[in-house]
Amino acid sequence: MNTMRCLACAVAIAAAACGENVATPTSATTSEPTTILFSGTLQPRSSRFYSYSLTVAGPVTAMLASLERNGVPVSNVLELGLGIPAGTGCAVSSAASTTTALIPQLRQDASIGTYCVRIADIEGLPAAMNFTIRVIHP
Amino acid sequence: MIRAQLLLIAAIASSGCRTTMTSPTAEADTNRLLREFSSLVIPGGGASREFTLTTAGTIAVTLTSTTPAGTVVGVGIGIPRSNGSCALSAAVETTAGPVAQIAIAADTGPYCAKVYDSGTLTAPVPFTISISRP
Predict the structure, then answer these.
(1) A36: nearest CA in chain B?
(2) Cα→Cα distances B20→A18, A43, B12, B28, Å
(3) Does the distance separating the beta carbons of B16 and A72 come in below 8 Å?
(4) Which residues of chain A fall short of a pLDDT of 50?
(5) Is B9 within 8 Å of A6 when comparing Cβ atoms?
(6) B3 pLDDT higher than 90
(7) Structurally, how many domains does chain A consist of?
(8) Residue A133's closest CA among A51, A65, A49?
(9) Looking at residue A43, which CATH number applies to its domain?
(10) ipTM of the complex
(11) What is the pLDDT of residues B51-65, one digit of tens each?
(12) How far apart are alpha carbons A34 and A42 in whole angstroms?
């Protein structure tokens, strides 16, 4: 009888001591941001834009990460903008004249909806260039 | 008898908790990471290596060797495209040396370092670069 009591006691102590191990993990409440790479060719004195949708409000960042001519990076200044699609274009509400960088040149808080990122050659590129823009949004 | 029962209780209790008794793992090393990458660049071509920054900071790339020594190649840093190529943000044309030839500040995310023929190669050139990052 004593042995049975002892065993029951031991199991109870073991279960109590191990309570933390069987706790159900809490589910994550935040989702990973979405990364969009927008690559293309920009002709001199032209612009390109790309539309994307936010299903969650939050910060949006845009980075002109690369501008290349024949595979070699160049340092020409372009206008990078964030806005909303309008007609057949992108109505920019926030813009920056910038060279390439690996740190976002634009940040904007946005609500749920459809938006666009635009790249434009304002100063006149000497030739067509390949660009890559990275947009990160909720 | 009581002593034996106490020992039994202790044995069962401790055996059920074996996984919680392990020592905590060491905290992640926050020092800069340094990785070497060796490959071959062919005339008109390039070779790149991807890596991910989980912390924003400076990426520095050192072309440590080429064969033959003194060969001029392009060394750049950029972001990987979806097709696997490396879209360069900045680059230099350089020979190998002990000091980083290019460094650039970067946000978190995936990046790449690339060595490419800047237009002077007539034969494949083996090279080694080291990538320093947060």
Answers:
(1) B82
(2) 8, 62, 14, 20
(3) no
(4) 1-4, 6-28
(5) yes
(6) no
(7) 1
(8) A65
(9) 2.60.120.380
(10) 0.76
(11) 999 999 999 999 999
(12) 24
Return mean pLDDT, chain B: 84
Quote the domain boundaries for residue A129: 34-137
pLDDT of residue A90: 97
What pLDDT score does A31 carry? 76
Q: Inter-chain contact B105–A102, Cβ cutoff 8 Å?
A: yes
How many CB pairs (< 8 A) connect A and B? 96
Query: What does the alpha-carbon distance between residue B46 and residue B117 come to, in Å, rounded to a whole number?
Result: 6
Does the pLDDT value for residue B81 go beyond 90?
yes
Contact B16 A18 (CB under 8 A): yes
Give the pair of three-digit tokens for residue B2: 């009581």
Which residues of chain A have a Cβ shorter than 8 Å from any chain B Cβ?
A: 2-3, 6-7, 9-11, 13-15, 17-18, 20-21, 35, 37, 39, 61, 63, 65-66, 68, 71-73, 100-104, 130, 132, 134, 136
Cβ within 8 Å of residue A85, ≥6 positions away: A49, A51, A91, A114, A115, A116
Chain B residue with minimum CA distance to A1:
B5
Do the domain assignments include residue A95?
Answer: yes
In a domain, A123, yes or no: yes
Mean pLDDT along residues B2-10: 45
| pLDDT in the model for residue A29 | 52
Domains, chain B, with CATH or none: 32-133 (2.60.120.380)
